[in-house]
């Protein structure tokens, strides 16, 4: 089965980090967002994914592709790359992988993490849509259902007709069917919200054509689309996974934390809710509710609600700080 991941967006709401790293490649407690999504499918889906199709932006370079190839190999899957030159909506993004829309496919938009305690079966359905119960359905596209069968899709309903939000994960038994309906939208210039080509319009056409849509509900749906959301999701994952950690000289650790390989920490207080990636050096600092990426060097810092880029040098910083890769910041 193919897994198709549109990820051409620039992730403007997680800048400065997305200036150098696409949002789906940002880490959550030691593992990239996109890899956590692949791991979730391996754990919860009754199918094996043997190819991952990444829809990238035109300016995504060789290093990004190599990272994704290595990740795919770890999960015994072939990596294929397509390009979305312009952001014209979710249906347009999927259309950029038109040559891959054949046979069984899963499409997932890599803005969020999700999980389910139960195994998801896709038998006896033309399509399966992953859903999450929400308190305020008026903020989301929702699915109306009878039992396990979906009967309608409604974008941001004004009336409480369903509290099951569409989370951006879709299975199709025949990718060719979806390809046909997306092409119809493009050929006839049928746009929806934001004057863009929307995948939900293609789903609606498939539903009206008599295709059988089933629902799969998730227990966990975590946003990574903004800096506060990335921090909050990392904190929830840290609490859930409860990583072990080493002892460090003159340092107090308040779990939950994640501390990557070859990290060096001295004279500091770390946690709670701190993720420190590999090969980072921290001296005489107090850090809580923050993300520190690889190969960073921090000294004499007191940080909270902060996100620190790869290969960044930070001295004397205090409070909430967000700095991108290869930055040097000295305060005090």
UniProtKB/TrEMBL annotation:
Transmembrane residue ranges: none
InterPro entries: NTP_transferase_dom, Nucleotide-diphossugar_trans
Residue span(s) of domain Nucleotidyl transferase: 4-237
Pfam families per the UniProt record, alphabetical: NTP_transferase
Record key words, sorted: Transferase
Gene Ontology molecular function terms on file: transferase activity
Signal peptide extent: none
Taxonomic superkingdom: Bacteria
UniProt protein name: Glucose-1-phosphate thymidylyltransferase
Organism per entry: Rhodohalobacter mucosus
Lineage: Bacteria, Pseudomonadati, Balneolota, Balneolia, Balneolales
